[in-house]
Amino acid sequence: MNQVLTNVPLSLPVTGNLLALADNKHSIIKLFDRNGRLEASLGNPDFKPISGIPHYPFRFGGIGIVALTEDGDLIVQNRIASKATETTEETDSVFKSYSGSFSTKGSTILPSFLVQISQKGVVKYLLGASGKNSEPFRYIEAVIPGEGDKLFVYHRIAEEMRLTYFDEGELKGNIRESLLPVFTSPEAKDFDITLDKMLPHPEGEYVLASFSYFSKKDKRFKYRKIFRYTFGGKDDIFVKEIQDPSEILFSIRNNNEFYIWETEDQGNSVRLQVHDQEGNHINNRRLPFAPPRGQWRETYTDSDDTIYSVRIRSGALEVYRWI
């Protein structure tokens, strides 16, 4: 069999000198320093700690997304399974699937809460879709810590994507896909418009949203547009039009510049186009991936605008920082 690491996340959150690795199988989060030394672990109370390494017990359900605030607190998606949401399949169902059938998706959507917890296992609050101690999230795609105690959650409610903004666990506002004016614009008559993603500025002042436009006549991709929105605002501000489908919105920097990801050299390298707040292309950063390209899993940024990539090589998980 191929030696593939499966019990690891796509990305590993980093802040300061701290890196967090979720062990989903055992419901444990391990904290490492930048030299790869294990500093502490949090999670399953029955976990036998390593001698000399602090372990702080907390009974997680199923660990989903893990993020780190700029102060080093963990934001953990804690999936809660209940009798009402669990499903039981026939024991021989695996033998009824045709050869090659494989799925990484669960049969049900498990509700989850976000737990903000210190590195020593002190719970600060439990966050639901409407704020502290409210109803659970149904599906979360991204958890994005902002400056201070700001937190942004990109999630779905009733088949609609939302970007919800919290500060100190209190709901500050959200941007709902169904209310975005782009879907009622004159272009909507000729194009099928789909939302690619929404990214918040760390201070919560605005959001950049990317949309793909497909012709209703031939179903082909025509272009991509980026708009700026504010929480609570009704209008959008046009920022950028992109003709190449391989160019996608990647991240927003603290200084209001944003990156467009452009794949180059048959996927062996990436050019990050640097744009100013008005959408002007002002610079580039190139990320050359050492072959083979298939070893590289995910590229992402932290709160200090540092870029990281995760690589799996020879059965080991490696984190690279681009300089």
UniProtKB/TrEMBL annotation:
Record InterPro entries: LIC12708-like
UniProt KW keywords: Lipoprotein
Superkingdom, taxonomy of origin: Bacteria
Protein's UniProt name: Putative lipoprotein
